[in-house]
Amino acid sequence: MALSETELMLATSRPGLHAQVYCILQIGYFKASMHFFRFDWSEVEDDRAFVSSRYFIGDIFERKSITNHEHYTQHGRIAELLRYRLWTSYFLPQIVRQAESIVLRDDFAGFCVRRVARMA
């Protein structure tokens, strides 16, 4: 997992080694999947060990939990750094217009939308 200089600067600006490692993992996972994940350290042990051996040689890692505040702060900063816009309700009218346009053009899409709407 190679980081750019700005990505590494973001990660190392986080408070504490555990938050820095978490940030590097979030950057890597986001770049690979365009999704953010909430994870327990036991779920990412191999990745955590790799990050520690590459970026924090000799530092002792403690499995401290990440606060919700830190988790969501990292989301925002990573998204901003990678020029990605996180979902907000601001996008809802645009999505509704797009869905209406698709339904008008494709009857099967309309069928799918009606089925999903019934399940909600």
Structure, explained:
The longest helix is centred in the N-terminal third of the chain and has 17 residues, at 17-33. This protein has helices at 5-12, 17-33, 45-55, 68-81, 92-105, 107-119. The mean pLDDT is 89. The chain is built from six helices and no strands. Helix 2 packs across helix 3 (45-55). The termini are far apart. The protein has two domains: 5-81, no CATH class; 89-119, no CATH class. Helix content is 64%, strand content 0%. It has 120 residues and is mostly helical.
List key phrases describing it.
120 residues, mainly alpha, 2 domains, 64% helix, elongated
Write the layout of secondary structure elements.
Layout: H1 5-12, H2 17-33, H3 45-55, H4 68-81, H5 92-105, H6 107-119
Summarize this structure briefly.
With 120 residues, the protein is mainly alpha-helical. The chain has helices spanning 5-12, 17-33, 45-55, 68-81, 92-105, 107-119.
Q: Which oligomerization state do the chains in this entry correspond to? A: single chain
Radius of gyration: 19 Å
Q: What overall geometry do the principal axes of the alpha carbons give? A: elongated
Number of domains: 2
Query: How many beta-strand elements?
Result: 0
Tell me the fraction of residues in β-strands, as a range.
Answer: under 5%
Note the gap between the termini. Answer: 39 Å
User: What is the helix content?
Assistant: 55-70%
Give the low-confidence spans.
none
Look at the structure and give the mean pLDDT: 89
The tally of helices reads 6
What's the order of the H and E elements? Answer: HHHHHH
Summarize the main sheet: none
Structural class: mainly alpha
